[in-house]
Amino acid sequence: QVQPVESGGGLVQPGGSLKLSCAASGATDSYHPMGWFRQAPGKEREYIATLKWSGTMPTYADSVKGRFTVSMDNAKSVVFLEMNDLKPEDTGVYYCNTDSVRFGSSWYGIGSWGQGTQVTVSS
């Protein structure tokens, strides 16, 4: 497997927008959807969104639904997470994983993790 690489994080004011990228070319068999996750300092990593490698059937955690959008480029090698109306509670390190599985209402990464990109929402 190939380790994905996240980018696009930074400092943004509440209500602002940010777009993250996850480069993961050639890393998956495309059976399991890719996933976006985040982790705040001292807290467990949480699921925020998934997307099939076909670019279809996105899912979102309730905390980001309506504000975040996950998408994929035409070559299916880069996945994006567009974040709008950002809130301080969105602060954390954002990770992508090449393969995700669902247990109940939560998703978990079982494939390759990236190193993450820091997102800080602050005034």
Describe this entry's structure for a reader.
It is a single chain. The chain is an all-beta fold and 123 residues long. The chain has no helices and twelve strands. A six-stranded mixed beta sheet has the order 2-12-9-4-5-6, with no helix packed on it. A four-stranded antiparallel beta sheet has the order 1-3-8-7, with no helix packed on it. Strand 10 (100-103) and strand 11 (106-109) form a beta hairpin.
Question: What strand line-up does the widest sheet have?
Answer: 2-12-9-4-5-6
Q: Helical residue percent? A: under 10%
Question: What share of the residues does DSSP label as strand, in percent?
Answer: over 45%
How are helices and strands ordered from N to C? EEEEEEEEEEEE
Total DSSP E strands: 12
In DSSP terms, counting alpha (H) and pi (I) runs of 4 or more, how many helices? Answer: 0
Chain-averaged pLDDT: 93
SSE order and pairing:
Blueprint lengths: L4 E3 L2 E3 L5 E6 L10 E6 L6 E6 L7 E2 L7 E5 L5 E6 L8 E6 L2 E4 L2 E4 L7 E5 L2
Parallel strand pairs: 2-12
Antiparallel strand pairs: 1-3, 3-8, 4-5, 4-9, 5-6, 7-8, 9-12, 10-11
Give a short synopsis of this structure:
With 123 residues, the chain is mainly beta. Helix content is 0%, strand content 46%. The strands form three sheets. The protein has a six-stranded mixed beta sheet with strand order 2-12-9-4-5-6, with no helix packed on it. It has a four-stranded antiparallel beta sheet with strand order 1-3-8-7, with no helix packed on it.
